[in-house]
Design brief:
246 residues, single chain, 21% strand, seven-stranded mixed beta sheet, Spore Coat Polysaccharide Biosynthesis Protein SpsA, Chain A
Length: 246
């Protein structure tokens, strides 16, 4: 059994929101390098592949001693859908499981990637979607979606958490994806769907310039292991060591 579990890093050359995003330096290291380095230290994947429409990423893949898959430019426009280029890759490669790794999530770790894949296998999901669990009062199109406005205001800790997808890692089973795509023209949300919750820095997803700026600052803090001292106003000093939970 050869190359049955692939980790695919999709990169479109013509990124509009942040030009050259994947090769832009984050704390002096290309953004895409973070996920490559972490994937190389995982136990789960037989093959690491950059999927892109441009040869610049082929050279980058060779430098990192990983594989490259040339995506048709028709599947790399601003209107291209993930279902289409994933179908293209699955249809042209011998594998059983595919993990799609988002290069814009630089603070994921090798352990999280491995944990996600193991969780996927242990629960026999067909599709696994990484997400952030959000426990706050939310509205959609003017309507409350996780609480009722016809009652006293519920505490946030009592709300059912919403699962906000961050796509740091998405895992699909080839035959299930392929069959659903051929039948319904989509494949990402196929079969039995599970959710892998990430937290803290792992939730950072760089889509806009302000995201990059935030990630740059966070990266510098992480690098020097800064832990800020707990400080309080003088009026609270006598309560610091007392139980005030009531």
């Amino acid at each position: 059994m050869i190359n049955k579990v692939h980790a695919l890093i999709p990169v479109r050359f013509g990124s509009k929101r942040i030009k050259g995003k994947s090769l832009r330096l984050l704390n002096n290291k290309p953004l895409i390098q973070y996920c490559i380095d972490n994937l190389k230290n995982t136990r789960s994947f037989d093959k690491i592949v950059i999927n892109s429409d441009h040869e610049i990423y082929k050279n980058f893949a060779e430098e990192n001693k990983i594989d490259f898959y040339k995506r048709n430019k028709k599947l790399a426009t601003s209107d291209s859908m993930i279902d289409d280029y994933i179908f293209d890759y699955l249809n042209n490669n011998d594998l059983e499981y595919l993990a799609i790794i988002n290069p814009t999530s630089p603070f994921m770790t090798s352990e999280l990637y491995d944990n996600a894949f193991q969780y996927y296998l242990n629960n026999n999901f067909d599709t696994l979607l990484s997400c952030e669990s959000i426990q706050t009062h939310c509205f959609l199109s003017g309507k409350a979606i996780n609480f009722s406005i016809n009652q006293k205001h519920p505490r946030s800790q009592d709300l059912e958490p919403l699962k906000a997808l961050n796509f740091a890692i998405t895992i699909v089973k080839k035959p299930v994806f392929i069959n659903n795509y051929i039948k319904n023209e989509y494949g990402l949300y196929s079969g039995d769907i599970g959710f892998f919750e990430t937290s803290g820095d792992a939730n950072v997803d760089i889509d806009y310039e302000e995201d990059f700026q935030f990630a740059e600052k966070l990266s510098l803090i992480r690098e020097d292991n800064t832990v800020y001292e707990k400080k309080y106003h003088n009026s609270f000093k006598e309560y610091i060591n007392k139980d005030i939970s009531n």
